Every structure is written in structure tokens, then in C-alpha cells.
Amino acid sequence: MNKIIAFFVRHIVFFQFVLLEAAAFVLIVNANEFQKSVFFRHATAVMARIYSVTGAVGDYFGLREVNDALARENAGLRNEIEALKEQVAHLTHDTLIMSRRHPDLRYIEAKVVYNSVYHVQNYIIIDKGAEQGVEPDMGVVSPDGVVGVVQRVSDNFAVVIPVINPIQRISAKTKADNQLGSLVWNGRNTAVAQMEEIPGHVKPEVGDSIVTSGYSAIFPAGIYIGSVSKVYGGENDPFCKVDVRLGVDFHSIEYVMVAVYKNRAELSELEKTIEHDE
């Protein structure tokens, strides 16, 4: 014990230097947006690499090739569905309306390499990034429904803010009567989110489906989110709220798909000009 104490005493200047350097680094990152952006970009890549390597061992014993093939098949089927929708739109007399409702899009399949479900601020990391065409603000779905939205990307990985994170709000609607609302999570049950701002005259029923509205360049319209499990609000209230049992089981999610719109950048720029005018 005396030798250990003597060692620290002899090298106390060195340890002070390391601590001061660490403190200076933290202050620089927190005080400068550019340095913060660079730090998080590289930190995301490093963390994702670690999670990817550790997950690969389990994948080896879990039929990784079969799972990857199924993920590619799901993405391929969704791409075919969107292509068929586009063909149908050109065969109808109402082509303009159909094209606006179902813009050209494709899906990029990805594997979840990290997933948190036991926190309030949950997030997911997937193994696709900028080099594969993934960008911030792209929607992420699974065969069971909406997963979340891409927040930031590195070269080969991306951070996704899932539905089960209170900072995430998704434009949704009731499938039965197309009434709009806003889906948000209250931080409690990971299987249930809340849909707010539903007009008071609308009375959703337990079991009604909730889907994406399609009024953005993030998600196409009609993607399943979940079903109504409870309704709040009286007849005279201007708005009502419902609990939505989510279609996605975030405890077992493994493969996802990123929705990529052909003209996403153009649509996003137009949306920004509208917001600025308002």
C-alpha cells in the first residue's frame, strides 16, 4: 500500500496534467457546436463498431445469414410494393393525387447493433450510414410498423430516435376516418404510446388502427403504428387523446428498413420555406 501511495505522490504532476487536459476537452466540446458535432460523429462510429463486433458473436450462433436474407427480402418486397403503387398511379385518372400520396421511395435494410429500452431517452444504432445513403430525418420502419427517425449519421452507422423517446413526435392519423393527431411517448410503458390533438368530435374506438399521415418527407402514408387501447376525453372537450398499443416490440427488434424518398431534399426545402413564411 505504501508503494502505491508513493507512486501516486511521485507522479502527481502527471495525473494533474491528465485531469486538466480532460476537463479542457470537455469544456471545448460543450462550448462549441462544431467540435461537439465532430465529437458525436466519431463517438457514434466508435460505439457502433463496438456494439457491432460484440453482436457478431451472437449472430454467428443465431443463423445470421438467414436473418440477413430475410431482412433483404423484406426491403425488396417493400420496394416492389412502392413500384406497383407508382404504376397504379399512372393508370388512374387521378394520377396527381396518387403521386402526392405515394412519392417515389425505396427502402434500405439495416441491422440493429444497439438498442436501449429501459431509459426515458432511448435510442437505436443501425449498421447503415452516409455511405449507404442514410441521412438525418429519414423514417425507419420494420415489418411490424414504425420504429423511429434517424437523428444523426456517421459513414457506416446511424442513430435512430425511436417512438419510445419523448422527444420524438410523429404525425399520425386514424385509419378509419383519416383524422390527424400527434403521436408521442409519455416515458412509461414501452408497448404503449399516446396520440394527442385528435379533434373532439372524433370518437376513436378501442381496436382502431393508427397509421402515419404521410404529410412529410419522413414516412409514407399508411404505415402501421399501432391500435387504440384506451380513449380519454369527454364529449364537450375540444380534443381527445388515446393510448396506442405499438405494433413494434422494441425489446426484440433486430432488423429495420430506412425509407428513402427520391425527391426528399426538394420536399424538405419547400416545407422549410412554408414554415419560414408562417
UniProtKB/TrEMBL annotation:
Keyword rRNA-binding appears in the UniProt entry: no
Ranges in a coiled coil: 67-94
Swiss-Prot/TrEMBL keywords: Cell shape, Coiled coil, Membrane, Transmembrane, Transmembrane helix
Superkingdom of origin organism: Bacteria
Residues covered by the Rod shape-determining protein MreC beta-barrel core domain: 112-259
Family per similarity comment: Belongs to the MreC family.
Protein name, entry field: Cell shape-determining protein MreC
UniProt organism field: Candidatus Aphodosoma intestinipullorum
Gene: mreC
